[in-house]
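Ticket #492: bound-state structure for iron/sulfur cluster.
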Amino acid sequence: MIKVDRDEVFVELTRSICPVCKAVIDAQVNVRDDRVYLRKRCREHGEFEALVYGDARMYFDSVRFNRPGTIPLQLQTEVVDGCPLDCGLCPEHKQHACLGIIEVNTHCNLDCPICFADSGHQPDGYSLSLEQVDRMLDVFVASEGEAEVVMLSGGEPTVHPQIIEIVELCRTKPIRTVTLNTNGIRLATDPAFVRRLAELRVSVYLQFDGLRERTHRKIRGRDLREHKRRALDNCAAAGVAVTLAAALERGMNEDEVGDIVRFGVGHPAVRAIAFQPVTHSGRHLEFDPLTRLTNSDVIHLIAEQVPEWFRSDDFFPVPCCFPTCRSISYCLVDGGEVLPISRLVNPEDHLDYVTNRVMPDMRVRTALERLYSASAVPGTPQIAEQLECATCGIDIPAALRDLAQKAFMIIIQDFQDPYTLNVKQLMKCCVEEITPDGRLIPFCAYNSVGYREQVRERMTGVGVATVVPNATPLQAMLETTRHGSRSARRLR
Ligand code: SF4
Ligand code: SF4
Ligand code: SF4
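RESOLUTION: The complex was predicted; output attached.
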């Protein structure tokens, strides 16, 4: 008998969930054929394996970008059952919330085949009242002090009858930036609405999965190209900055990445593109967890499809969350000219927290940390200010010197789903769902672990927690949440 070597390198043991029953189970991270996989076994439902990073070298390189987290001013839950069942934020959480999401409704004017929120068709949807949103914003502000970004989402937030009042309410709070996550139908058909968004300084995240009719029909159920065009033109006319949000599915629209980049760079309203491999939570198309797209795959696709502008090493992991969650590249654009910022200043020289190969200039480090963050919203004055600081003293070509107008950002974000969920990433999540009962739940936990279903089930008639002065947040929740926070947190 001859002993045989394994075909993989074992990297670490972590925790995840069973994609079927959501039980919390051990999981192994392994590297095979230069790719990183997460494997786990549920006693009831057997073994599952999913690709989590398509390039093992980039995965290990990203470790150097793991910045120490910041403790929030208030926590909302206590440690009882362990991660990910104590969200949140619980005392074990490693980071504050750079971005808070409020899903103002579950209603939608589309019924997309891909929808992690499973919105559109349910008869039992809900819309938040202004009072509920007010209290949720207060929970966010109590946790953050001055909060960076709130994103209004849904469902489709623009069909909420009080969406403008909700934005106005956000503007009365110490929250720097308000963004609206939309499919763009109302932006295309209601120019007055777009003008009001501009007056309220709202940035838009516009669903934009590609330029081909087939892509629209497969992912959104109908051809929305004309709506997208009109929505973008209305935003350009009103002066609303737009991030194109593209859901990417293997075998569906991965070959459109380059066309989306060229389209975005060429449109006056577009200041950023967020590429998001499809999250296989809620509704999704059939997929193979072993060949799914990951952040490094998307980075390589951009470099392959737009080689005249980007290389793979123009993208850097974001240090505020776990660095395998999100990568960003900044560039300056003018007509046909595109210059990645990484060719002017190397973020790695300043954001390498493990080896600190050069002594970082702290001003430049701070500026880069703010740029390479989930709270960086394209088209805002803060971006130009930080770019100014990060490139201080560097000779920038004359045509690109107006940083407020020329900055363009590409974000790659692989949200976790029940197949890929790793508590190691969750514990440092900086993108939180603000729930009506006053919790801040890491977005990927909200979509994967069962919290979304729990909130939806309990939503109708459930009061929103009031922040009781001088009470610990947990006491406040126990006193004011109709179902009680302990029972609300138990998922099984
Ligand atoms: S994800 Fe964070 S808040 Fe949720 S249980 Fe884990 S450590 Fe706590
Ligand atoms: S993905 Fe967005 S637009 Fe589509 S059904 Fe879901 S909420 Fe509506
Ligand atoms: S939302 Fe998900 S992918 Fe984004 S930082 Fe949080 S855990 Fe990571």
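RESOLUTION NOTES: The chain has 18 helices and 16 strands.
TICKET STATUS: resolved
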